[in-house]
Amino acid sequence: MARVSLRGVNKSFGKVDVIRDVDLDIDNGEFVVFVGPSGCGKSTLLRLISGLEALSSGEIYIADRPVMDLPPSKRGIAMVFQSYALYPHMTVFHNMAFSLDLEGKSKKEIRERVEAAAKILQMEHLLDRRPAALSGGQRQRVAIGRAIVRNPDVFLFDEPLSNLDAALRHDTRVEIAKLHRQLDATTIYVTHDQVEAMTLADKIVVLKDGEVMQVGAPMDLFHNPANEFVAGFLGSPKMNFFEGVLLSASEQQAHFSGEEFEVDGVRLVSTTKRNGDPIKLGIRPQHMWLDPNGSVTGTVTLVEQLGTETVLELITQQGTPFRIASPENVEVSVGEQASFNFDPNSAHLF
Prior knowledge:
Layout: E1 4-13, E2 16-26, E3 31-35, H1 42-50, E4 57-62, E5 65-66, E6 77-80, H2 92-102, H3 107-120, H4 136-148, E7 154-158, H5 166-183, E8 186-191, H6 194-200, E9 203-208, E10 211-216, H7 218-223, H8 228-233, E11 240-250, E12 253-258, E13 261-268, E14 278-283, E15 288-290, E16 296-305, E17 310-315, E18 321-326, E19 337-342, E20 348-349
Parallel strand pairs: 3-8, 3-9, 6-7, 7-8, 13-20
Antiparallel strand pairs: 1-2, 1-4, 4-5, 9-10, 11-12, 11-14, 12-13, 14-20, 15-19, 16-17, 16-19, 17-18
Helix pairs in contact: 2-3, 2-4
């Protein structure tokens, strides 16, 4: 395992800036997830670390050594791609052993490493099969095993679960989490799925348009988002936003007025705002509850009974849509008016 550091990293394709001035430190043994919408630059950033793309400017260090001029094979990394990229004519054993064979390792060492990786992934019984005889989840485990046998300083995962169905994604995600705890290896993982990011990461890096929006532990980002984008991207269902004005502010708390209600003592994220400025109140659907005398009122447009929770979609009189996620069975019907309350301490002003 090794520390990874990025300093002033930039990448442009022609006149298009894809990665913009990224500074980032990834500690030994840390599981870091790059997350963001499609086109935000997360895969490009991973490819810059791996050496598959050349920097436009900046510096990258792996295990405290500069790697900008090193090819991927010399950077001490192993990469697992979205596509399994397995050789169809080779057995699982030979797919996993191929890179070691190219390095000139002895047959004895190759067999020991492959068998050790297969044991970790619980696929010893698959070593003699070819990829065509494997399920999607088994093929992905072979791709992960091919990375393990190299004993890299850093594991790089580029959306490895995107080709799997929902149930298999969950099972493989659990396997990757267990694997990280077992190997204690520095891991960088790219995904657009915020559930994967929240469940796997020690640290999340949220990207938008090639820029880092916020870095931190999953629950820190969930409870204390640095801006509206991070607040809206993390969490399911997404955070509700109500437009209004800032009535007053002191330090990091403020008084909001909008959508025919007022609330004081709310965390003020956008500290540059002044009294009378337009502002948005953000409330997570899980932090609102049914209350006949509640502050927020809307007309129910959809009721989703999910078993473990009930999700309501509503619209205010001013036309703002919002959602409520309740762990209880909420007795309301489409077309009804319903009122909800919330704790100001769990809300945010952007």
